[in-house]
Amino acid sequence: MGRGSMDGDTQQTSGFIDIFNPAAEYRPYGPEIKEAVLSVLDSGGYILGEQVAQFEAELAAYLGVRHVVGVASGTDALLIALRASGVRRGDEVITTPFSFIATASSILRVGAKPVFADISLEDYNIDPHTVRACMSKRTKAIIPVHLYGHPAPMEDIKELANRYGLVVIEDAAQSLGAEVRGKKVGSLGHVAAFSFYPTKILGGFGDGGAIATDDHEIAEKAKALRDHGRTGKDEYSVLGYNSRLDEIQAAALRVKLRYVEQMVEKRRSVAQIYNQMLEGTSFAIPRESEGMRHVYGLYTVRCSSRERFAEFLQRNGVGYGIYYPRPIFDNSFFEKYPFFAGDCPRTRVACREVISLPMHSGLSAEEVGRVSEVLRKWSESET
Ligand SMILES: Cc1ncc(COP(=O)(O)O)c(C=O)c1O
Q1: CATH classification at residue 351
Q2: Distance (Å, rounded) from C-alpha 236 to C-alpha 241?
Q3: Domain co-membership, 254 together with 269
Q4: Residue 382, CA distances (Å) to 120, 189, 271, 318, 373 in order
Q5: How far is the C-alpha of 143 from the C-alpha of 170, rounded, in Å?
Q6: How many CB atoms neighbour CB 233 within 10 A?
Q7: 7 C-alpha vs ligand 1 centroid, how far in Å?
Q8: 138 and 213 assigned to the same domain
Q9: Is residue 12 part of a domain?
Q10: Residue 180 in domain
Q11: CB of 23 within 8 A of CB of 225?
């Protein structure tokens, strides 16, 4: 199995090429990660110790924010970010229906009402014009999602938020390392949520997440909320959760964080190769907007004959994924909750046509070559 360098790695593989491969992303750093994890085991300190504190400081430096608070998952990061920034029952929060369920379920979990604005088909992110049309006097916050690794249009969103006094909570679960004019996502709104789910850009070894913010008060609230609402040794002053990032997880993530730029550059170079194969075909390929850095958390194209293409990939040993087959509000449990969604026609097009190809930093040159060959065969069969 390849170890992930684009050049020089010519080892032969013949198996099915999965869309994700967390083990291949672990292997190059295996010895360092094992050493880091073993040292935590030996230390006897497993909860909220040195590793979490160091990881938080290192991730804050990487992102260019003042505070990072490690939590148990990206979902909890969203929930705690919402609570720490004062979103409550009765508030409305504008977000995209074209995302993972957790983006919107966290809004419901604080008792607020999700209001869904349509996306742009250029980058699959929330469209600021539709955000404006969704605003009411109850609107308290906007959650833009940096989907697939491409930043949401933060300049326009922040302009709206500043004008109407709204909180901006970035869902950066898929986009660690992405940038807008040289600034990292997660440093652009009031507060941000990251996920270290194993298939993410900075993939952990189990669940994990983090909140990033420049706001001291939000950070202090988040620290209390993740630890039962604790604000002193025996003092609990807010209804909190048990949502701590584990020491073992933090120790392993610290190792991977040192290599994250390399991993992102690898993803970008794979994307360039796929783009070259698909340029000039009927596919809509991912675009990087001017001034932005795409980190390809997923490599997603749009294809009007998705079912046939998916079958073709499968038959030729190439994995794929559909993110997302339906707008969030079409999931059945939403019937039981208050929400608002307009027509969202562009979201519906995306749900019908998107398909994601193998993308991770552990892809070998040989695997990228095989995927490219399958893409070439498909485009030839289409012309
Ligand atoms: C856009 C988005 N938001 C939130 C989450 C939730 O993160 P987690 O799985 O770590 O809870 C994910 C990923 O799973 C995601 O892709």
Answers
A1: 3.90.1150.10
A2: 11
A3: no
A4: 27, 43, 21, 18, 14
A5: 6
A6: 5
A7: 32
A8: yes
A9: no
A10: yes
A11: no
Per-residue pLDDT of the chain (383 residues; tens, 9 = 90+): 233 333 333 344 569 999 999 999 999 999 999 999 999 999 999 999 999 999 999 999 999 999 999 999 999 999 999 999 999 999 999 999 999 999 999 999 999 999 999 999 999 999 999 999 999 999 999 999 999 999 999 999 999 999 999 999 999 999 999 999 999 999 999 999 999 999 999 999 999 999 999 999 999 999 999 999 999 999 999 999 999 999 999 999 999 999 999 999 999 999 999 999 999 899 999 999 999 999 999 999 999 999 999 999 999 999 999 999 999 999 999 999 999 998 999 999 999 999 999 999 999 999 999 999 999 999 888 87
Tell me how far the alpha carbon of residue 71 lies from the centroid of ligand 1, in angstroms.
Answer: 13
* Residue closest to 124 by CA, chosen among 281, 327, 342: 327
How many angstroms separate the alpha carbon of residue 102 from the centre of ligand 1? 6
Final residue in a domain of this structure, among 258, 289, 323: 258
- In terms of domains, do 303 and 246 share one? no
- Identify whether residues 229 and 360 lie together within a single domain: no
Any residues with Cβ below 6 Å from ligand 1, and which? Answer: 73-75, 99-100, 102-103, 145, 171, 173-174, 195, 197, 207, 209
20 inside domain: no
Residue with the smallest CA separation from ligand 1 atom 7 is 74
Structure tokens at 356: 């994601």
Domain stops at, among 241, 258, 275: 258
Domain span at residue 56 reads 29-258
Query: Is 200 found in the same domain as 277?
Result: no
Ligand 1, residue 297: give the atom nearest the CA: 16
Q: Are 211 and 172 in contact (CB under 8 A)?
A: no
Cα 37 to middle of ligand 1, angstroms: 24
